[in-house]
Amino acid sequence: MGHCIFCSIIDREAEASIVYEDGRTAAFMDIRPFTPGHLLVVPKTHAANLAELAPADGGAMFQVGQRLAEALRSSEVAAEGVNLFLADGVIAGQEVFHVHLHVIPRTAGDGFGLRGRPTNPPREDLDYLAASVRGRLG
Ligand code: 5GP
Ligand code: ZN
């Protein structure tokens, strides 16, 4: 593996405002926050994407995200809501190839939002793709 900025943060070789860490995960402030208090949770073991991520690390990352979401509400960030977001792959907007869960505090009128419009496919299309995905679960 080459240079990874999040591994450098975990190893304290790069500067970061760390909020939390345990044996499996670390959480720190996003350097370019969408909203004030925007956090990132990362597994300490490098995984470039979800396919490489150990399920236990994924579970731990989500649990830390849950705890941070609660803390963001009662902290001075005063979040009224929270979005959890994870980009897996370039097309999904992933820019740093060390898996990370965004924890984005929300307040009224903060301007944050995901682009995209819901579609309204027929049930047979939903069933068709459901079967296709189900068949790959193993
Ligand atoms: P992605 O688009 O890969 O889901 O998000 C990458 C996130 O990492 C972005 O929100 C970006 O601001 C954040 N980021 C990139 N480099 C650094 C860094 O060096 N330090 C911190 N704290 N965040 C970073
Ligand atoms: Zn890394």
Structural class of the secondary structure composition?
A: alpha+beta
Q: Ranges with pLDDT <50 over ≥5 residues?
A: none
> Quick one: biggest sheet?
5 strands, antiparallel
SSE ordering: HEEEHEEH
* E-strand count: 5
Average residue pLDDT: 97
Backbone shape:
globular
Terminal Cα span = 29 Å
CATH topology: HIT family, subunit A
Work out the helicity level. Answer: 25-40%
Number of helices: 3
Ligands:
guanosine-5'-monophosphate, zinc ion
Give, in spatial order, the strands making up the sheet with the most strands: 1-2-3-5-4
Output the radius of gyration.
17 Å
Strand content: 15-25%
Domain tally: 1
Quick recap:
This protein is of the alpha+beta class and 138 residues long. The protein has helices spanning 5-10, 55-74, 123-134; strands spanning 18-21, 25-29, 39-43, 81-85, 101-106.
